[in-house]
Amino acid sequence: MIKVIDNKFIRVDTKNNTLTFYVIGELPEIVYYGKKLKKDTDFTPFLGITDITGVDMRDYVLSQFGKEDYKEPSIKIKNSNGTFVSDFKFVKFELNKPLINNSSLPLSRNKLENICFTLKDETNNITLEIYYSFFKNSDVVAVNSRLINEGTLPIYLNKIPSLQLELKSDYFNIYTFDGGWAKERIRHESTLRGGLFINESRTGSSSADHNPFVLLKNKRGYYGFNLMYSSNHKTSIEIDAYKHARIISGINDFMFEYKINPNDIFIAPEAFMIYEKNEDMLSLEYHDFIQNHIVHPKYKERIRPVLMNNWEGTNFDFTKQKIIDIAKVAKDVGAELFVLDDGWFGHRDGDNSSLGDWFDYKEKTGGLDKLAKEIKDLGLEFGIWVEPEMISEDSELYKNHKEYAMLIPNRKPHLHRNQLMLDLTNEEVKEYVLNSLRNVLNLTKANYVKWDYNRNMSDVYSSKYSSNEYYHRYIMNLYEIMDTITKEYEDVLFEGCAAGGSRFDLGILYYMPQIWTSDNTDPYDRIFIQTGTSYAYHQVNMGAHVSASPNWFTKRTSSLETRFNVACGGNLGYELDPTKFNEEEKNVVKNQIEFYKQNRDIFQFGDIAYLKSVYKNGIGGFITLSKDHKKGFVVITSSSLKNDISLKLPLLSNKKEYRLVGRDIHFTCILKGNTLKNINDIFTKIVDKSTYNLYSVMLSIEEI
Ligand code: GLA
């Protein structure tokens, strides 16, 4: 709810919070952001201090270079005369002004209300609109800006804000979610007392290195910041001598200088900020927000099929018969979708060829259309893997169209996984990619597509555009491709993937409602990866598969039940060669899938909280509950059977009683409140005490 007070203050109340702006002066100022204020207060006492030794300490919505502000600015423009000074001043505010987007940038859906601040730099005749958008029954606030060059000369945009927020505090701790291939979104906690902290990607993707999501905490609570952008992002936190933390989030200014001609408009991606007292509540707010405002509405509550993927089972080494054999067992155990992974096209028998040649490798598939049909005739849906943004040097495409590759003339390109990227800034390449995808989808009539991206950018070059515009132009064309294909094939379920989970972000989720979380399927590591991911992303967004033991990558062993228990914390699939199951394993898997299907609404759409104790004492897992929090499941994992500790279960009420029953162990207890004492009592029930690296239990929970 937006309320203008005395034409001086704008107060906005979200579900639990209040955000207030002061709109008199050179720039709008944020005077309050925190838990909901009961009454309409006079906000004057919250106003920032204007002058201590010449430093302006007001918490503005924008910062720029050119006066007394020497901190990281949120906007940086190279003017036509080569200078870098800006002087944006407040012109007006408007309520519920439509945010016009003439670009392919994805923006959040179903907004309720907004405030638009118009600012102007008179010297250059540039207008900047800053939008704060609000959503029904949500604490998430979307912030972004739109720049219009109304002058007669071009300018160069070096930085444009999605969000700027200033917070006052003695200290902050920050969580970032960093990693690399097979160790995505590992939570790191750093203490911020002063100085400049940066969380960014320079890979051309949102990256496994540093996810765009960051969480700040101080004694007041938790502040989350995420960005809907799948390319180079940057969030900086600068704390000054007066304990003001300036948070800026947006497109990374690394190699960014975007020419804005007269009358051109540039729109910045949306950043989503949120404040909550409790970190589990903050995650739930983000989860709901993704389902209500990011993914396509048709996926809001659509249950996802249990899939069988052949990648870890066969790698490139399969025949048509092998695939059919796998699919038959998949059907037998209850899977609903079979996914044919890498290796079905060109002459792809390894990772060194054929990317770009999206035509059937008939000798291997026995005819892809027939194979797809036979799988469907078994009663399964058919899914297929593609990596449309890539090209192999050993491919027909490269032979005929070397100019399609992302290469710098006269420089030997850097290969990763033996492959190059396609130059998506080239319109002809964009069309090629679209047509390749159409051919595959028309041939197979696939129900599902796994869209992979197995390397990052290095040889950034276009003959048409400056390299400083390249990253943004690439991602905008990628969004356009994704938009076109997902609309043309609206019944197909798309899953994003990037060498595991290296492009796990809101931009991809806008088009593809689920993303493969990591190539690391060892539950011991996976519990950390899923816990980190769950901070900002919904469990149904996370692909989570049961694979073979010992794990192909870590060589660790785990029981089939533990692998299943951990995979239930996401969107369940199996990724192994099920023809190798013995009868007992087959029955176990059959029961698992049946059990998952019976409780799928809770596993896929329940309110989930991962156990943060995993970062303290290694006791991990998650609790997922029906929306009324009356029933659900808890999975507890541990790397030791000796856990003489108590565990506080999030989301459960301290004042209620619950019945807990083991899923695959004989255990029942009545829990009074939310603290499970002596969890070793439960772990000692595990019958199989072999040398696993991780043990787990799943208990059902019911309020009594
Ligand atoms: C990436 C993906 C895997 C698999 C392989 C195929 O690594 O993350 O799941 O699809 O590519 O090459």
Q: How would you portray this structure in words?
A:
By secondary structure, the chain is an alpha+beta fold. The chain is built from 14 helices and 39 strands. Strands 6, 7, 8, 9, 12, 13, 15, 16, 20 and 21 form a 10-stranded antiparallel beta sheet that branches. An 8-stranded parallel β-barrel has the order 22-23-24-27-28-29-30-31, surrounded by 4 helices. Helix 7 (427-444) runs parallel beside helix 8. The radius of gyration is 26 Å and the shape is globular. Bound molecules: alpha-D-galactopyranose. Alpha-D-galactopyranose (GLA) is lined by residues 311, 341-342, 385, 452, 454, 497, 499-500, 516, 519.
Structural descriptors:
32% strand, 39 strands, 14 helices, alpha+beta, 704 residues, 10-stranded antiparallel β-sheet, binds alpha-D-galactopyranose, 8-stranded parallel barrel
